[in-house]
Amino acid sequence: FGGPGPSRMFHFGGHPGQEEMDVDDEGYGHFGGGHMGGGRPQRKRQDSAVVRELPVSLEDIYKGATKKLKITRRVLNNDGRSTRTEDKILTIDIKPGWKAGTKITFPKEGDQTPNNIPADVVFVIKDKPHSVFTREGSDIRYKAKISLKDALCGTTLQIPTIDGRKIPLRLREVVKPHTAKRIQGEGLPIPKQPGKRGDLIIDFDVVFPNQISSTAKEILSDCLPAS
Predict the structure, then answer these.
(1) Cross-strand pairs, 154
(2) Residue 159 φ then ψ, to 5°
């Protein structure tokens, strides 16, 4: 897992454990170290932060989740000079609505050596691609495919939600290209506004037929306006 010394292994584990962690959803911080003073012994410097992405599903962002990750690192023995390999479980409590880019910092959980201050271990939340929805902040978008007939004549669609429900959406007006409809309060939780959620935005993909009969062409020509 980066930094000096042997490589680290990070993966999801199944063992309990709770560690102190700092959460920052506003941007990257600065990780510094010590400095040398003239004529004085060199002070220990902290290793650069070890940063890794943590993919999280939209379902976990919606309801919250707990992730346990096992790290393998070097730690100092009691003599203060030799080291040994140690496994440790880091626990991350994913809060509902956390944004991509939110950082969770475990201070000084990196490799230990006689001459360094261990690095901070930082996980950065990343949205996992979803098969149905895409995320825009606290809103989620859904693409609904409808036939040309339904776009012109109307229909009722069953719109899925992030928590597995279906919401009926009645289309009474002609659905034009780039039309979108919004269902309020069916998106993701808004972290700084408890109890509030973003919206579910429906984009329409109108599927045109590959061909139509001559009779249908005549009927459409008589019924549809020229422009």
Answers:
(1) none
(2) -95, 125
Please write the tens of the pLDDT for every residue from 212-226: 888 887 887 877 777
Count of helix runs (H) and strand runs (E) in the chain: 3, 15
The pLDDT value recorded for residue 76 is 93
Q: Give pLDDT tens digits for 12-65.
A: 333 434 445 565 654 333 333 334 444 566 788 999 999 999 999 999 999 999
Three-state SS letters, 64-90: CEEEEEEEEEEEECCCCCCEEEEEEEE
Is residue 154 within 8 Å of 171, Cβ to Cβ? Answer: yes
- Write the CA distances from 44 to 2, 109, 124, 160, 179, integer angstroms: 19, 16, 27, 55, 60
Q: Which residues lie below 8 Å from residue 83, measured CB to CB, with a gap of 6+? A: 74, 75, 76, 77, 111, 112, 113
Coil vs helix vs strand at 145: strand
Reading the block at residue 213, the tokens are 């009969």
Asked if 103 and 124 touch (Cβ cutoff 8 Å), the reply is yes
Which tokens hold the place of 173?
Answer: 């007006």
